[in-house]
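Hi V.,

You were right to ask for the full record rather than a summary. Here it is.
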Amino acid sequence: MHPDITWLDVSNRRRSLTGYCLGMAVYTLVVVVIFPAFKTSSSLDKLIASDSTAAALFGISGPISTTGGWLNGNIYANFLPLIMLLLTIGYGAACLAGQDEDGTLGLVAVLPVRRTAIAAQKAAVLTVTVAVLVIIGRSFQLDIAVTRIASVSAATFLMGLDFGLVAMAIGALTGRRGTAIGAGTALAAASYLVSSLAPVASWIRPGRYASLFYWSVGNSQISGGVSPIGYAVLTITGLCALAAAILSFRRLDIH
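Predicted structure:
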């Protein structure tokens, strides 16, 4: 399989990807640099304890004066996934449905390349996008194990890829970019809220197992690591979404 489609799509998105990565790197550096100023302060921890529900909306469920809590509350539980999902859901919706609406997908489809290969190369672009952003946006090493950083970064990578593939599958099924963006964003928002509010809302807690956020960053993985079950859920979800995207694209009536 010649990766011409992959390189073309990556090239077309190089400016936005570069901008997001630079912004994420600068933000991460700022978060790390200011940590010493809060390391010995308990005021934020007291504020979080006094209003745990409000803190949960931002993905914070414990003290942030520790290294793990600080990185989780400022990077992994919210900001990095948000930036990543903006990229992956946007591309997932645009790569098939968006190009179909623009009339450019037909030019790609007439090439001597099977539709399965086209969909696979579009998924490869998602993989490159998420990998670059996660690598650039990962925390600079504080007093936390490199293996923990690598573990959570890998889980964040899989989660971003999953939602992008879901948007891609919805776009291939409906042929509408707006529908794919709306549905993908709604699923990501619901997943985030369920994972974030589960610690403080008992009626939501049983549903946390259906949240990709819970399996990747919503269960204090920066401190305890990502479980094998978490990796399995994230991997299987992505494979199912990719299969759905390929099957839907094979049946899509390209304009």
